[in-house]
Amino acid sequence: MRSTTYAAAAVALAALAVPAPALADDPSPAPAVHLAGTSFLTAVPISAGQPVQVGAVTGDYLYWQFSADAGQRPELTAAVTLPATGRTGDESWIIEVFDGLRRRQACVAGEQSPVAARDAAQVTVGCRIRQVRSWAEPQDGDPLPGTYYVRLSSTRTPETDLGLPLKVSLTLTADSGDLDTDQGTLAQPLVPDNRPGTVLTTPAPSATPSAAADSTFSADWLPDFSGRWFWTAGGGILAALTGLFGFSLTRRRRLR
To answer: Model confidence over 143-172: pLDDT tens digits?
Structure first.
């Protein structure tokens, strides 16, 4: 009897010792990003809450891209760890955000272009753009759903400090705003078309004109018949008459 009780207790303890499986609904953290692009075409994609840790050198232009939906208010914060030794002067840093049409977006919060003193160990830049709208007029520059680009660079750096190593830590948050402010929808997100062109598989046509084309007369170079013909002809006749009248007034008369 005691052996049966001990066996049941051992089974219960073993069941408690086994860790519970993770819930399938728990979102797994996004992997960290350790790369940055050098232009709009090579911008590295990132998402909200994804850690970004990049090593670079002073003077580099660093590019990332992210997607934003209507109602979101994207905010970026970048912490630049400056070189501990070798700096000779102050540095100015700036973070900029562009939409899919390469339009620069205004920052409504955050220190967009701070100046790091010579003895500063770190500088923090930040930018929060306006709330992404669901639609806008063609002439407006409001943020719209689609792809956005982030550019981090130093605008003023002593020439002797270029090339010094540094580290960049970037974070992106996308809080939701008021969705009732817009009453429209965008037909297509502002996503740039970076697809390459079609490769030609047939030989290009020859640029040498044929002999048959040279032997025939073609009037394709003449403009279509319109009111401009009358204005041109009338202007030419009027100019000729004006020239003759002016010549008659200025010519020297013959003496008899």
So the answer is: 889 999 999 999 999 999 999 999 999 999
The string of pLDDT tens digits covering residues 17-74 is: 334 333 334 456 678 999 999 999 999 999 999 999 999 999 999 999 999 998 899 9
Establish if 71 belongs to a structural domain: yes
How far apart are the C-alpha atoms of 105 and 127, rounded to whole Å? 10
User: Tell me, what CATH number does 170's domain have?
Assistant: 2.60.120
Residues 149-168: b if buried by 16+ CB within 10 A, e if exposed = bbbbebeebeeebeebebeb
The β-bridge partners of 175 are 73
Pairing mode of beta strands 115-116, 91-98: antiparallel
For β-strands 62-68 and 44-45, DSSP reports them as: parallel
Distance CA 40, CA 151 (A): 9
The answer to whether 115 and 91 are in contact (CB under 8 A) is yes
The domain tally of the chain equals 1
* Strand-pair category, 91-98 with 72-81: unpaired
For residues 3 and 1, give the distance between their C-alpha atoms in angstroms, rounded to a whole number: 5
Contact 73, 177 (CB under 8 A): yes
Choose among 50, 70, 30: nearest CA to 172.
50
Q: How many CB atoms lie within 10 A of CB 5?
A: 9
Burial of 172 (0-12, 13-18, 19+ CB in 10 A): buried
Q: Could you tell me if residue 194 is inside a domain? A: no
